[in-house]
Amino acid sequence: MVTTEQVWAALDEIEDPEIPVISLVDLGVIRDVDVEGPRVRVEFTPTFMGCPALEVMRDRMAERIAELGGEAQIDVILDDSWSTDRITPAGREKLREAGFAPPAPRQVGGPQLVQLQSGGFRCPYCGSTDTRLENIFGPTPCRSLRYCNGCSQPYEHFKTI
Amino acid sequence: MHEQALLQIADDELVLGWRDSEWTGIAPVLEEDVAFSSIAQNEIGHARAIYSLLSEDPDALALDRRPEEYRSSALVEMRFVPDWAHTIARRWLYEQADAIRIARLAASDDAAVAGLAAKIQREEAYHLMHADMWAERLRDEPRFRAAVDDLLPLVLGLLEPGDRPALLAATGLGEVTAIERGPHDESWPQLWEEMTMVRRSEPAGVAW
Is the CB of residue A121 less than 8 Å away from at least one CB of chain B? Predict the structure, then answer.
């Protein structure tokens, strides 16, 4: 019989298809796991709605649960329960190590342009806060492009949403 | 929430996503290739999510209707490439209007609609920032001013009459007579052909 712990451990081994340094659990997209006999119900709260990785995530979760002998039911929750604040501290550290500046905590009123245009958002390579916004948008909808004046290196910043 | 109102928003987002994606690879600066591609991807994602609220088969709702069954505004159907002034005027005005109508949905009594609207707002915040940056940059550019004047009547038509003063207040623009949603743009049949071509080329249910 599958246990809830086994399911969480299995989901923690699935990488984000686009940022493979971070697992789905660290990304915070698993809201709940409910095991009843062979049936495993996962509440999946997607990141960006146009993200093409979402289908891949859903399929991989179903595959892993099937490997454990469970019958997967992946419920996609389309409310605003996912925010970058759900990324775990371990996940944030993995992002930084891979060269992505992790998202700033979400503030009341949401992200503001003036905040993005300010320095800060510490460079993941050299740690300098002398950085600037290059483009609100980046290679995927979840990332912005920044430039570090300290080490003359462009880098990606995970947007706060 | 009335299904018709949700369908209008979803159709607007889908079609504008198509039109904005036409800048991929040919925008005036590389940053805008990237920005327009991401924004278009988000808009189509929002359309998909709203279609999912309305139907068990969002692809069918998005792509299996006849052209006359779509509720999109002529505003989002117009093809502007290579007119950057009109493109930015549309992006800016559309985002301002969209913020007002999505805020309405977020206050809905229907928990599913309100939850989805709040999620959409998180992403739209970045579209608004991008549009505001450009509007600020082009504020004194005559081609941009002319494009804004040209499109404002259609943009007002995206909103319920009671919400229109809020758009004028947010943009600082003077009152004009709205053009109501209804007649499609002359370019719509061709866009519909293109948008649904692959879907129509294979029977529904073919796996890719």
Answer: no
